[in-house]
Amino acid sequence: MSTLARKKGVGAVIWDYLTTVDHKKIAILYLIAGGIFFLLGGLEALVIRIQLAVPNNDFISAGFYNEVLTMHGTTMIFLAAMPLVFAMMNAVVPIQIGARDVAFPFLNALGFWLFFFGGVFLNLSWFLGGAPDAGWTSYASLSLASPTHGIDFYVLGLQISGLGTLIGGINFLVTIINMRAPGMTYMRMPMFTWATFVTSALILFAFPPLTVGLIFMMMDRLFGGNFFDPALGGNTIIWEHLFWIFGHPEVYILVLPAFGIFSEIFATFSRKRLFGYSSMVFATVLIGFLGFMVWAHHMFTVGLGPIANAIFAVATMAIAVPTGVKIFNWLFTMWGGNIRFTTPMMYAVAFIPSFVIGGVTGVMNATAAADYQYHDSYFVVAHFHYVIVGGVVFALLAGAHYWWPKMFGKMLDEKLGKVTFWLFFIGFHLTFFIQHFLGLMGMPRRVFTFLPGQGFETGNLISTVGAFFMAAATVVLLANVVITTVKGKRVGADPWGDGRTLEWAVSSPAPEYNFAQIPLVRGLDAYWIEKMEGKKGLTPAEPLGDIHMPNPSFLPFVISLGLFIAALGFLYNQDYAWGKWVGIVGLLVTLGAMFLRSVIDDHGFHIHKEEIMEAEKKGAGA
Amino acid sequence: MHIEEKLTPETFPAEPEKATLEGKNKFLGFWFFLGGETVLFASLFATYLALKDSVAGGPTSEELFKMPLVFVATMLLLTSSLTSVYAMYHMKNFDFKKMQLWLGVTVLLGAAFLALEIYEFNEYVHEGFKFSTSAFSSAFYTLVGTHGAHVTFGLLWILTLMIRNAKRGLNLYNAPKFYVASLYWHFIDVVWVFIFTVVYLMGMVG
């Protein structure tokens, strides 16, 4: 049954990835799919910036601009940042805790395919009558009035991909609680694992409100519901609440893993233990907790009243405290460290001032009275791009460079990596720093053009130039990936030489069973401890024996495909008679596949001891 | 303990649902799932409370809801939760036949509840209370209907487990499956207690 060390044809490789339940391969799937959507969202950003480069531009029409800006936001948050975060989690977390796989390998695959089909469904809208055009927040009064099917694609696509995210969240919670190696206590878990843990809890409690909001929107648009229609007693503000009860924790769902990635990188390349580990853990948990109490700061101008605004303003500002704790801990980790400026480390160092700017403008926005000035202006656009790009995208780029050898067995070229970094870093600040001032000068967001003579020309042109720097950085990164894949040399278990956590103790890429013997963890930075005692490998916690592995399965793909078909059918429910029937067929496909999963026993298979010994010998030689 | 082990009443563990790593994972994962479901229903309840008086000229809750029907439905579902506890009791005692029997009773009670709910919705529609009548009607049908969909899914799930395992009895592979299905059933029951209170009782008292 084992597929170890067997050469395979292209068809077999594709089939392998369609049916895989291995967390490392699922990580690669997330990376590829998320990467493609990232490029797509980036192209949409370029279109926006070209349109805004000069006043009264007619590069694209106003209506199309709305579609592009909506899809840019939606794609970047749901289809690029989230899956890329999941790529990192899948690639690293099970190995960091000394496990052979996640708790639910089947569900892991299901989560990916749901995200994938949801994303494809959303982007089908470009070809089927027009993309959603009510902004990524899709406020109900706008979206109910949208004449095309775009919003329906948004609602159904996000519903499907959101389901995948929820499944992924539950999976990581259980994995981290139940699958840790002996000795891996909670307070010995690497920071990235901690961040994944808290993030997963946020996913679990933040996604259901979005699900409910999307159900209401679907009912209103496709099945005659009246949740948001004031004419029949509905209330459009309900959408805003549900969306932001999800939407604000979503910010932390993205940024906590980013903090986790940087914590790993700072410690590794300062060659020092992370400063204030326990306060880092506490700050992470506290940010996750407070993240649920601040959603109405997105709604200060709705008119909830001064008391509600005041409470949410104070709660929001409170988050700056644990975040500040983290910033100082990172600085103190570098203090007195033996710092190596590798590509990941450069992103990490650049992240601190960039993210602090985003944090400071965040506190400015949190001041409810002042927010009446900032709201819906480019100041807000600048703020959240500083947080999301300066925080999350920097972390994803850093993490990709850092863990690339662990995922693919080859190092990305460091010179090209630094070129990418400088282009991206300069381009990022060029694009968004000036937008603070555009916003304060009164330029509204989400408007497709501006008039000459209002003082917006220079700022917008600078911003557009910056966007092209980031595009160039992306091209260099892609070239780096291609060159590395073609020419790169195979590397050993610990290619940076300074790895501290368990993932650097196994070969690159890790064997499908991760650890021939589950390790015994003897403290924080488990691998570093072994290295400092002069040992080459980890201390095993069990004798070498047969390893139990889960079977691959095609059913996750089918379950997701069924929902995709169902969504397509129900989307055309009101236009064509076949709509409803296609929808029902799709649901039956999904339920049928779930039924098969339930009735067919799946006991997995074993890799035998001899095969493992052979594979380990080869791995050691590489 | 190993998952494919043949067991007797003597060797069957006290907590078969958590005797294997797979079982432990399933147990914990399902509790987390129920946590997510709780937030889902909380959102539905919050919306219902916000919209329950927005009748837009259509029927109000006082005009629609009838105590006898809802009371009988509530009793059926509460009883089914009890019978599923009996089923789990027998599972832990490795008495497969009795477990199947009580699960069967659970399914029958659940099906009766579902039939009453369908009858109830049908009555309302005939009284001019359709899904698109008002914001109240949309919120009502979505909240109570989501619960009904959960009941339907639970029934299909328990039936599938009963039929699939009818011939081979209990083992450590299917014990966690029965256990989480019964957890799901309890959860449905708890949600209904809130629906009975928030939707029906509050709806009749006004």
From TrEMBL, chain A:
Keywords: Cell membrane, Copper, Electron transport, Heme, Iron, Membrane, Metal-binding, Respiratory chain, Translocase, Transmembrane, Transmembrane helix, Transport. Gene3D superfamilies: 1.10.287.70, Cytochrome c oxidase-like, subunit I domain. It catalyses: 4 Fe(II)-[cytochrome c] + O2 + 8 H(+)(in) = 4 Fe(III)-[cytochrome c] + 2 H2O + 4 H(+)(out). It is found in: Cell membrane. One of its GO terms (cellular component) is plasma membrane. One of its GO terms (molecular function) is heme binding. The keyword Membrane applies. GO terms for biological process: electron transport coupled proton transport; oxidative phosphorylation; respiratory electron transport chain. Its cofactor is heme; Cu(2+). Its EC number is 7.1.1.9. The chain crosses the membrane at residues 27-48, 68-93, 105-128, 153-179, 191-218, 238-262, 274-295, 307-332, 344-364, 384-404, 416-441, 461-483, 554-572, 578-600. It is a multi-pass membrane protein. Residues 9-522 form the Cytochrome oxidase subunit I profile domain. It is an enzyme of class 7 (translocase). Pathway: Energy metabolism; oxidative phosphorylation. It comes from the Bacteria. The keyword Cell membrane applies. Belongs to the heme-copper respiratory oxidase family. Cytochrome c oxidase is the component of the respiratory chain that catalyzes the reduction of oxygen to water. Subunits 1-3 form the functional core of the enzyme complex. Co I is the catalytic subunit of the enzyme. Electrons originating in cytochrome c are transferred via the copper A center of subunit 2 and heme a of subunit 1 to the bimetallic center formed by heme a3 and copper B. This cytochrome c oxidase shows proton pump activity across the membrane in addition to the electron transfer. This is Cytochrome c oxidase subunit 1. It comes from Thermolongibacillus altinsuensis. The lineage of its organism: Bacteria, Bacillati, Bacillota, Bacilli, Bacillales.
TrEMBL record, chain B:
It is found in: Cell membrane. Its main location: membrane. This is Cytochrome c oxidase subunit 3. InterPro entries: Cyt_c/ubiquinol_Oxase_su3, Cyt_c_oxidase-like_su3, Cyt_c_oxidase_su3-like_sf, Cyt_c_oxidase_su3_a-hlx, Ubiquinol_oxase_su3_dom. Keywords: Cell membrane, Membrane, Transmembrane, Transmembrane helix. It comes from Thermolongibacillus altinsuensis. Belongs to the cytochrome c oxidase subunit 3 family. The keyword Membrane applies. The chain crosses the membrane at residues 28-49, 69-89, 101-119, 139-163, 183-203. GO terms for biological process: aerobic electron transport chain. One of its GO terms (molecular function) is cytochrome-c oxidase activity. Pfam families: COX3. It is a multi-pass membrane protein. It comes from the Bacteria. Residues 28-204 form the Heme-copper oxidase subunit III family profile domain. Coiled coil: none annotated. GO terms for cellular component: plasma membrane.
